[in-house]
Amino acid sequence: MSLESLTSRLPDYARDLALNLEAAVGGSDLPVQRLWGTVLSTAIASRSAVVLRELAPEAKALLSPEAYRAARTTASVMALNNVFFRTRHLLSDKEYGTLRAGLRMNVLGDPGVDRVDFEFWAFAVSAVNGCGLCLDAHEAALRGAGVEREVVQEAYRIAAVIEAVATTLEAEAVLAEAVPEG
């Protein structure tokens, strides 16, 4: 199971996705931990069993046990935060923004990895989950830590490619059942 295996599973009509996956992940200049934590956390956020089965073993082999756990933890806590804060942001009644969240998020205080890596992963997962409030908060933290815009863009570039690959492969699996060849 690997990036190459996942790329080979993409149908011919999704050749651009295969090329984008190779470039965004295979050709990335990000440090290994930042890159593969982003890949793993966005694969989890994509909710695609196919993508996660292909990429998780490679992520586990390339990440320290602490980083592997932290990337999974990031995806988990951001699944909670993205729904909660996206909803709060979208509601017309802004008084909800003054209410105590009442949610446990202790991992935010000590994510188990370098703070910039955690923020990068949280930003990427927020891109997959479409939470503008979380995107703004994590982008501000990254920029405040001195991360350049071009590097920040890598997070949502990877997120976009992983999500598109997940959507395509999940659709292909359903179509193969619903509209058999021949």
From TrEMBL:
<feature type="active site" description="Cysteine sulfenic acid (-SOH) intermediate">
    <location>
        <position position="134"/>
    </location>
</feature>
<feature type="disulfide bond">
    <location>
        <begin position="131"/>
        <end position="134"/>
    </location>
</feature>
<feature type="domain" description="Carboxymuconolactone decarboxylase-like">
    <location>
        <begin position="95"/>
        <end position="176"/>
    </location>
</feature>
<keyword id="KW-0560">Oxidoreductase</keyword>
<comment type="similarity">
    <text>Belongs to the AhpD family.</text>
</comment>
<keyword id="KW-0049">Antioxidant</keyword>
<dbReference type="InterPro" id="IPR004675">
    <property type="entry name" value="AhpD_core"/>
</dbReference>
<dbReference type="InterPro" id="IPR003779">
    <property type="entry name" value="CMD-like"/>
</dbReference>
<keyword id="KW-0676">Redox-active center</keyword>
<dbReference type="Pfam" id="PF02627">
    <property type="entry name" value="CMD"/>
</dbReference>
<dbReference type="InterPro" id="IPR004674">
    <property type="entry name" value="AhpD"/>
</dbReference>
<feature type="active site" description="Proton donor">
    <location>
        <position position="131"/>
    </location>
</feature>
<protein>
    <recommendedName>
        <fullName>Alkyl hydroperoxide reductase AhpD</fullName>
        <ecNumber>1.11.1.28</ecNumber>
    </recommendedName>
</protein>
<comment type="subunit">
    <text>Homotrimer.</text>
</comment>
<dbReference type="InterPro" id="IPR029032">
    <property type="entry name" value="AhpD-like"/>
</dbReference>
<keyword id="KW-0575">Peroxidase</keyword>
<comment type="function">
    <text>Antioxidant protein with alkyl hydroperoxidase activity. Required for the reduction of the AhpC active site cysteine residues and for the regeneration of the AhpC enzyme activity.</text>
</comment>
<keyword id="KW-1015">Disulfide bond</keyword>
